[in-house]
Amino acid sequence: MVSRVIPVEPFDLVVFGGTGDLAQRKIIPGLYRRFWAGQIPADSVIIGAARSGMDDDGYRALARAAIDEFVTADKRDVAVIDAFLATLGYVAIDAKGTGGWDALKGRVRKNVVQAFYFSVAPSLFGDIAERLHAHDIAGPNSRIVVEKPFGRDLASAQALNGVLAKHFNEAQIYRIDHYLGKETVQNLMAVRFANMLFEPLWKAEYIDHVQITVAETVSVDGRGAYYDKSGAMRDMVQNHMMQLLCLIAMEPPYHFDPDAVRDEKLKVIRALDPVKPEDIVRGQYLAGDGQGGYLAHAENKDSKTESYIALKVNISNWRWKGTPFYLRTGKHLRARTSEIAITFRAPPHSIFDDADGWRENVLVIRLQPNEGMNLMVMIKEPGPGGMRLTQVPLDMSFAEALGEEGADIPDAYERLIMDVIRGNQTLFMRGDEVEAAWRWTDPIIQGWEARGDKPKGYDAGSSGPEDALMLMHRDGRRWREIRE
């Protein structure tokens, strides 16, 4: 199967925070890979903008180092790298002052697509947006890309949306969530809405429960003071996991159109029930194996911020009433994995004597590592001796199923930045969607803060606190094993 690469129109992209960690790890390498693939025209202009004093050659040297470190050797071609670096430039800029803005204006063209990537702290969004207009740099067709966090509660999200709305309309604002750029996440929509196989079964009548797991092996060491201000609920559940839940639970949109898709996601968020205190488990990883625990890494011995959270979530609508969604995410766990597991109900009657051999049908959607899907089904165990049942996977790894082209799945940032250039907002969050998510999240956080709940300790390298197991066991269910 040959992957089609459709070039975009020439564009100007300004990356504010262009010398930062995200720019070096994701944005610059991602842009280079799209250039290498032939998707970015050579007459495009990419400008880094930051406080550091640097000229074009200095920025190109920084970009070359980033490509050497974060792009695989099979895609590092000297001639292509040189051609890509020729599209790059740099402007030293004062986000809160006047320095550099006239120089930036002189380098941004008016006759091509303009995109401005705000890879900076949210506190600078308003200052940058205001100056882009004050210096007549941004026009009515310009687009801005903003990174999370989109606030830390409803009030701050509304304030942030208000700041952006002063200078850009909603159609110009691209709130980026890299989880939505993953190939498997988009394939979830294709599997549901391009095939008749699953959609008739995609409801409470046939689905027992859904598990969404995002497990990380890394600790918060080195950024604990920052993480301690957010925690797993704000950092992962309110945005990444909420988006995954919406894509699973949403109704079919009338068309694969940005607003149609986002309208259906918004309906899911608004249908979420309040979460009961007994349906929440929070944890903090403990010290062990010569490594410090969360409290040491957060530099706060009295911290009540969670590095792990598990939730039982219910959706009050006709499709999902009675089918719980179990969400869990955490740091310093056993393995790095992200997956969605849809567990189907048992057949109403078994005709086989080997009833003990029966296992649930489970559709597993793997986001990382090894993106793909598999469906666990029951078959007859091979060999003589009667009808004994066994469970086997119908496996589809994208890399294997699509051959060499499948192994070259673009990074989420590559896809999302190209969508910005095309003007396609389907995989980006709308302002009312962000606010609705916070409207559901805030009472949960306020509840445990009012109760003074402390997170439960769990061993680093484990699957999380024991209480999370009980969250499932009391319902007669169990978590899937966390493994790569």
Q: Report the biggest beta sheet as strand number plus sense, adding barrel if it closes.
A: 9 strands, mixed
Can you tell me the overall shape? Answer: globular
CATH topology assignment of the largest domain: Dihydrodipicolinate Reductase, domain 2
Count the beta strands. 15
Q: From the alpha-carbon coordinates, what is the Rg to the nearest angstrom?
A: 24 Å
Helical fraction equals 25-40%
The CA-CA distance between the termini, in Å, is 27 Å
Report the portion of residues in β strands: 15-25%
Per CATH, the class of the largest domain reads: Alpha Beta
Give the low-confidence spans.
Answer: none
Q: Please tally the helical runs, counting DSSP H or I stretches of 4 or more residues.
A: 16
Query: Averaging pLDDT over every residue, what do you get?
Result: 90
Q: Structural class, please?
A: alpha/beta
What's the domain count? 2
Tell me the CATH architecture of the largest domain: 2-Layer Sandwich
Pathway: Carbohydrate degradation; pentose phosphate pathway; D-ribulose 5-phosphate from D-glucose 6-phosphate (oxidative stage): step 1/3
Protein name: Glucose-6-phosphate 1-dehydrogenase
Active site: 240
EC number: 1.1.1.49
Give a structural overview.
Keywords: Carbohydrate metabolism, Glucose metabolism, NADP, Oxidoreductase. The protein has 484 residues and is an alpha/beta fold. It folds into two domains: 11-147, 3-Layer(aba) Sandwich (Rossmann fold); 180-411 and 430-473, Dihydrodipicolinate Reductase, domain 2. It is 34% helix and 20% strand. The strands form two sheets. It has a nine-stranded mixed sheet, with helices on both faces. A hairpin with a 3-residue loop joins β12 and β13 (372-380). α6 packs antiparallel against α15 (431-451) and α9 (231-249) packs across α15 (431-451). The mean pLDDT is 90.
